[in-house]
């Protein structure tokens, strides 16, 4: 027996297409047909009305961190938060010195029984073993993207349990990634040698505000690292991805470099699109990279509009408020964000800045799916793709209340803020996992996404 259903009456938002009124036929978790509105289907096919709503491909959050909470439960709580935010697929990072064989088995054990949406992994690289193991990680675990912290020199990464590396390591890592078929190296771009000197001066002056935190990590240190990574990548034929880009300066360098080398991919996060160093949220808004100026914020919107930025993802850390309510230099970095992505893009992008719905769809669906080897299974509304949908009410105004959204974290940068445009239904492989703010799926329903390297140029 095939399981069929039809989503009827919605306006479909597809990257590269005009907005279209289409009914979507789903069969066994995949898209089986795109039909003219009201077209007859076989008798007895369950009809789900999405009249008056917009249907996006299932949205993807390609930047989530695992390991900052009690591990057993976070796969459930954070994927509940994802479902509430209209996210149908997440990609989570592990930070680790050891070989990934044990880590992968352990985390899969936790995740398989708990995830409510589909999920995949990125591995961080810090040891020699990770370079030699790279090819095996792709083949054995279906992981095609690897994080490298350009800032973790010496003891800098110790707080996350990572050994220090240097540009020589980075060079060999990129060369190996290129050799095995252009696996993606996700580069945290920050020149920490400059940051450390500037930070000491800022601290010596008694700086302790969000602005001081930003001052200690100048945009130049992000842009310079991007340039170094792009030159390395071009020289070695490697594929690089810059997560959480936060500054105009970095975007300007990326635009220049793209004209000579194409394998450069760029992400920003919702908080850089909404908040600045002048936010009154203080340490709650401490992140790395830091929130910057209004000019940087607007440059990031421009970067989305002109295609420089291909992915918007959250950099989600499920921390508690208590870890943030400390003096600036001691407070934890990062914050929860998965559920904010879609409402922020709709409220601030579509409603306030006139960004098209298709462009918004691209940065959260086809963009991340293409970069991270999930197309055409994910990120598309096409026959044969997974029946993942984010159904949105563009005019729904809702106050962002963390307690309603299910994360382990107990705060948000958007707390008590009214955002306009919300997901009202999240559908993963044909099954509704969230409807009107209620979770309707089951923990353990989410499937692991094995990825493989496509043919790259
Ligand atoms: Zn991150």
Question: How would you describe this protein?
Answer:
The protein has 457 residues and is an alpha/beta fold. It has a domain at 58-371: TIM Barrel (Alpha-Beta Barrel). 32% of the residues lie in helices and 22% in strands. Helix 3 runs parallel beside helix 4 (167-179) and helix 7 runs parallel beside helix 8. 53% of the residues are buried. It binds zinc ion. The site of zinc ion has 4 residues, from strand 8. Zinc ion binds at residues 63, 65, 243, 315.
What is the fold's blueprint, element by element?
Elements: E1 4-8, E2 11-12, E3 20-21, E4 23-27, E5 30-35, E6 47-49, E7 54-57, E8 59-65, H1 71-84, E9 87-94, H2 100-112, E10 118-124, H3 128-141, E11 145-149, H4 167-179, E12 184-188, H5 192-204, H6 210-215, H7 219-236, E13 239-242, H8 248-258, E14 264-268, H9 270-274, H10 294-305, E15 311-312, H11 341-353, H12 357-364, H13 366-371, E16 389-399, E17 418-428, E18 431-435, E19 438-439
Parallel strand pairs: 1-6, 2-7, 8-9, 9-10, 10-11, 11-12, 12-13, 13-14, 14-15
Antiparallel strand pairs: 1-4, 2-3, 4-5, 7-16, 16-17, 17-18, 18-19
Helix pairs in contact: 3-4, 7-8
Bound molecules: zinc ion (ZN).
Residues 63, 65, 243, 315 line the site of zinc ion.
């Amino acid at each position: 027996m095939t399981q069929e259903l039809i989503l009827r009456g919605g306006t479909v938002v597809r990257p590269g297409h005009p907005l279209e009124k289409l009914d979507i036929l789903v069969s066994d978790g995949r898209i089986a047909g795109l039909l003219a509105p009201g077209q007859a289907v076989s008798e007895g096919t369950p009809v789900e009305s999405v009249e008056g709503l917009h249907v996006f491909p299932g949205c993807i959050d390609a930047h989530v961190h695992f390991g900052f909470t009690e591990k057993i439960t976070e796969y459930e709580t954070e994927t509940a938060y994802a479902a509430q935010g209209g996210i149908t697929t997440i990609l989570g990072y592990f930070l680790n010195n050891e070989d990934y064989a044990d880590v992968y088995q352990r985390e899969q054990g936790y995740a398989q029984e708990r995830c409510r949406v589909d999920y995949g992994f990125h591995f961080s690289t810090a040891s020699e073993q990770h370079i030699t193991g790279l090819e095996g990680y792709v083949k054995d675990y279906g992981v095609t993207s690897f994080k490298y912290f350009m800032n973790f020199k010496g003891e800098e990464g110790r707080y996350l349990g990572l050994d220090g590396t240097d540009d020589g390591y980075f060079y060999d890592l990129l060369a190996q990634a290129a050799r095995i078929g252009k696996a993606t190296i996700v580069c945290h771009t920050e020149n920490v040698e400059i940051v450390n000197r500037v930070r000491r001066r800022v601290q010596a002056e008694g700086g302790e505000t969000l602005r001081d935190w930003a001052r200690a990590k100048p945009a130049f240190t992000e842009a310079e690292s991007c340039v170094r990574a792009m030159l390395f990548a071009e020289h070695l034929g490697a594929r690089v991805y810059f997560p959480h880009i936060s500054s105009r300066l970095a975007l300007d360098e990326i635009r220049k470099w793209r004209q000579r080398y194409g394998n450069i991919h760029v992400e920003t996060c919702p908080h850089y699109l909404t908040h600045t160093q002048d936010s009154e949220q203080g340490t709650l808004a401490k992140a790395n990279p830091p929130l910057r100026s209004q000019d940087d914020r607007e440059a990031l919107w421009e970067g989305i509009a002109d295609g420089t930025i291909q992915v918007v993802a959250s950099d989600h850390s499920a921390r508690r408020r208590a870890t943030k309510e400390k003096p600036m230099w001691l407070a934890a970095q990062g914050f929860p964000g998965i559920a904010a992505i879609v409402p922020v893009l709709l409220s601030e992008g579509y409603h306030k800045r006139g960004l098209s719905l298709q462009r918004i769809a691209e940065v959260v669906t086809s963009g991340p799916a293409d970069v991270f080897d999930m197309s055409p299974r994910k990120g598309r509304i096409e026959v044969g793709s997974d029946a993942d949908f984010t159904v949105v009410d563009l005019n729904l105004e809702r106050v962002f209340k963390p307690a309603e959204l299910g994360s382990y974290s107990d705060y948000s940068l958007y707390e008590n803020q009214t955002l306009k445009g919300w997901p009202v239904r999240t559908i993963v492989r044909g099954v509704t996992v969230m409807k009107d703010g209620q979770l309707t799926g089951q923990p353990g329903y989410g499937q692991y996404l094995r990825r493989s390297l496509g043919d790259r140029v």
